[in-house]
Specification:
about 400 residues; alpha/beta; Rossmann fold; six-stranded parallel beta sheet; 14 helices; about 35% helix
């Protein structure tokens, strides 16, 4: 991985220096209240460290999808109180993120104070990575810190454009994320296993194609596994299956063979005639015994045990997506069991475990092991694009800086 500068490379004394910090404060709201403040909490260490060094901390973030319109329901003013409570400091609202109003507000702020700038996406130029907008933002500060890995896959004015205009650094959350990703796929301890689950192969084709050349063991779960089983001639009954992608599945089998990567598919499965919680028709069977009117909804216990044995031989694990229809019990059983095995191996020090993606975080929370993995990324799209081997513009800009 190309080097990037961190907060350790900033001057020790930042008294009165204005630091623009790109954070991801795009939190979900319900009835005017934040329903999950994970992203706010992730931003606190960087904000606190800079404020403690005397910096004037100016926070840049998008919030919702206002598409260049001024939308009061998507104003970052709504985040001032929650952030003040989390940081234990006073936070002020600045009515724009570039231009004379923002410059005036920033010029009268005191050392150690924190300001949230208005939603970057109120400007149409944000998503177009408009050079003029990036310049207007850069005019507000002397340093730029990017602490928003979850927005790093987008080349926007506040994530990419601005990084070329000011001395640029990775914040603590971004630094932790990049170091974890480097340990997982950049320069990992081998053997490496990847768990890739989810409903559709179509959304993860690029990920699977990239991983077969990077890992020794590829574990495919979720509805995706049915398409691969069908490509191997298994009758999957009424299961979710993308028949038009059987050729793509065959191509990934061939690529894996050529790269010396073993693809693991379940040989016993949990099936039911209807998709509902604890259905009466629930049973476990060999994959070759699925009836025409049954659906595969989870991986069976024998397969989970075999996969646990695979993880015991590995040194690194990357996980994205559940193994079954985990939102509906008992189809979370396989995901929970394998996640607990991975957590135990991590605790023993024999496995580096890195997981990411929305469904994955929810599944690990359900298993009660989120805190026991080496690293869990809250990023969705950025984590997926990284697993596809793509260059993330926000990260590349930091490396160039």
């Amino acid at each position: 991985m190309t080097k990037f500068k961190t907060l350790d490379d900033l001057p020790e004394d930042l008294t009165g220096k204005r630091v623009l910090v790109r954070v991801d404060l795009n939190v979900p709201m319900q009835d005017g209240a934040i329903s999950d403040d994970t992203r706010l909490r992730a931003a606190v260490p960087t904000i606190a460290e800079l404020a403690d060094k005397g910096a004037i901390v100016l926070l840049l973030s998008h919030f919702g999808r206002p598409k260049g319109q001024n939308r009061p329901d998507m104003s970052t003013a709504l985040l001032v109180k929650p952030l003040a409570e989390l940081t234990g400091r006073s936070v002020r609202f600045v009515e724009d993120c570039a231009g004379p109003e923002a410059e005036r507000a920033a010029s009268i702020m005191l050392p150690g104070s924190i300001g949230i700038l208005e939603n970057t996406r109120f400007h149409a130029g944000e998503e177009k990575n408009d050079a003029g907008l990036a310049k207007g933002m850069a005019a507000l500060g002397q340093f730029y810190v990017n602490d928003a890995f979850s927005a790093a896959h987008r080349a926007h004015a506040s994530t990419e454009g601005i990084a070329h205009l000011l001395p640029s650094f990775a914040g603590r959350a971004m630094e932790a994320e990049l170091k974890a990703l480097e340990r997982a796929l950049g320069d990992p301890e081998r053997p490496v296993a990847a768990v890739v689950g989810g409903a559709k192969v179509s959304t993860k084709l690029a990920v699977l194609g990239h991983l077969v050349g990077k890992v020794e063991h590829l574990i495919i779960g979720g509805g995706m596994a049915n398409t691969f089983l069908a490509a191997r001639g298994v009758n999957v009954g009424k299961s979710l299956c993308e028949k038009d992608l059987l050729g793509e599945a065959e191509r990934i089998f061939s690529q894996a063979d050529a790269a010396g990567c073993t693809i693991h598919l379940p040989y016993d499965v949990v099936v039911a005639k209807e998709f509902a919680a604890n259905p009466p028709s629930l049973r476990t069977c060999n994959v070759h015994e699925v009836a025409g009117d049954e659906m595969i909804l989870d991986i069976g216990p024998a397969a989970v045990e075999a996969l646990a044995d695979v993880l015991k031989t590995c040194r690194t694990l990357v996980w994205n997506g559940p193994l079954g229809a985990f939102e509906t019990p008992p189809f979370d059983t396989a995901t929970v069991a394998l996640a607990r095995t991975a957590a135990a191996l991590t605790k023993d020090g024999s496995l580096v475990s890195v997981a990411g993606g929305g469904d994955t975080v929810a599944a690990l929370n359900q298993a009660g092991v989120t805190g026991e993995f080496t690293f869990v990324s809250t990023a969705g799209g950025a984590f997926l694009e990284w697993m596809e081997g793509r260059t993330l513009p926000g990260v590349a800009a930091l490396q160039q800086a």
